[in-house]
Amino acid sequence: LQEVYVGKETMCTVDGLHFNSTYSARVKAFNKSGVSPYSKTLVLQTSEDTQSEEQTLPFPVPLERSQLRRMSPFSSTLNLQPSFSGRSYFELRSSAHQLSLHSSLQSLNSAVAWFSFDPSSAHADIIFSNDNLTVTCNSYDDRVVLGKTGFSKGLHYWELSIDRYDNHPDPAFGVARIDVLKDAMLGKDDKAWAMYVDNNRSWFMHNNSHTNRTEGGITKGATVGVLLDLTRRTLTFSINEDQQGPVAFENLEGLFFPAVSLNRNVQV
């Protein structure tokens, strides 16, 4: 048995899982009133060593087989559902391999978790295409969409390409908690940390506080980079591979999902 997470989050990422292996998982909750019983033990099967997409294992779920991309060992995100309000406690048991809890990502040159956008958590106005790698929106109002994979440790970098940019909107890019507001610009509440940008300049925003106006914007074809360093607990942004402003946010801790807000004038 290996304990992999204790805390208040309802999701966690487990690093160091192996290809073609079976894991058993269970969860319990505790607060000042006591400790709940364990949930039923569920069997999670990782896929064979292929070069397809990364596996994300929601918990609790029936047995599912997915495929992986560019990681061995890899990370899995598990959705914890405790029996009552309080803290979650999660255990994972390996039937074939010992579980490693060390981050599999050591540098920007290492393999990273591959993810797509998540239709299940997005606002209803978000439009998905290209196997959920491309998003736009039905509304002129800002709508939020998250990535499928959450990160709680390690160093992670991803880029977003601006496929369409009409009438100078100001999309926002960054990270968010799973329960972020979906019907407002990213960063309007305390569940998101973002950079919003127009064709001339950018700002950082968290909890509706706007900081660090920086010259330089985006156009069609631009690339926005997001660097989430959970070892240093920082978030940094770039545009076309040049850092945009100073370090945007510090003291980040917990589970973060890649996040974007946009309207119908933008496709990412």
TrEMBL record:
The keyword Ligase applies. InterPro entries: B30.2/SPRY, B30.2/SPRY_sf, ConA-like_dom_sf, E3_ligase_FN3/SPRY, FN3_dom, FN3_sf, Ig-like_fold, SPRY_dom. Keywords: Coiled coil, Ligase. Gene3D superfamilies: 2.60.120.920, Immunoglobulins. GO terms for cellular component: cytoplasm. Pfam families: SPRY. GO terms for molecular function: ligase activity. The keyword Ligase applies. Residues 1-49 form the Fibronectin type-III domain. Transmembrane segments: none annotated. Residues 95-268 form the B30.2/SPRY domain. This is TRIM9 ligase.
